[in-house]
Amino acid sequence: MEQPIKVFIVDDHPMVKEGLSAYLKDCDRFELIGTATNGVEAFDKLKVVDADIVLTDIQMPRMNGIELTELLLEKNPDQKIVVLSMFGEVAYIKKLLQLGVMGYILKDIGKVDLQKALEQVASGENYYSKEITEVMMNKLRGANQKSFNIITDLTDREREILHLILMQKSNQEIADELYISPRTVEAHKRNMLSKTSSKNLAGLVIFAIENQVFTDFN
To answer: Are residues 18 and 76 in the same domain?
Structure first.
């Protein structure tokens, strides 16, 4: 039997926190190990509990989600963090991706997509809500382009995989769709990280959007 994914929730909105808590308690795949209403409280509590995933809001009193993310990743670079955002907070997307958050979802996400997001991040993969990806594309597509040679150096297979990553596909889903093994998917990801000088998949996503590798994500 699989061990449940241990989740810690940080949100100052009681209805959001209570709704998420109720869902996690009802789902066998997850174990709610704690909650906090701000970054200071969360950072203190996370010193004594070990969370697989920290699910955090952005705008909070005393310490916001960005500051909390910086502290947690400074303390433990392997900590998996998923940001829970209102659509109006899109200005923070690039900053949080650069910090290394592995997931970025909207607060109106459905239960099925929330479970997929948490499971995907727990397995070491990234997950971004479709709306977030579209916003990133619109906001970043005007940035200075990197060398055209880097973009054209991506093979057709790598571009296929990158497109599927942007569509929130997991390694297994990509492997099934392209009739290759998950290990081969990982190898292609490593090659793309090297070619684009990206530190992680979040950096690879930013690269793809800034350089308009794709015109859409459909």
So the answer is: yes
Q: In this structure, are residues 4 and 24 in contact, taking their beta carbons and an 8 Å threshold? A: no
> Looking at the predicted structure, is the pLDDT value of residue 192 above 50?
yes
Rounded Cα distance, 73 and 80, in Å: 9
Q: Find the CATH number of the domain harbouring 84.
A: 3.40.50.2300
Residue 53 makes CB contacts below 8 A (sequence gap 6+) with: 5, 6, 7, 8, 80, 81, 82, 103, 118, 121, 122
Which residues neighbour 20 within 8 Å (Cβ) at sequence distance 6 or greater?
A: 9, 11, 55, 84
Residues 156, 107 share a domain: no
Segment 76-95 mean pLDDT: 79
CATH classification of the domain holding 163: 1.10.10.10
What's at 48, amino acid-wise?
A: V
Per the structure, how many domains does the chain have? 2
Domain-located, residue 134: no
Residues with Cβ within 8 Å of 211's Cβ and at least 6 positions away in sequence, in order, are 145, 146, 150, 151
Beta bridge partners of 80: 53
Provide the pLDDT for residue 87: 58
Q: What is the pTM of this model?
A: 0.71
pLDDT attached to residue 88: 55
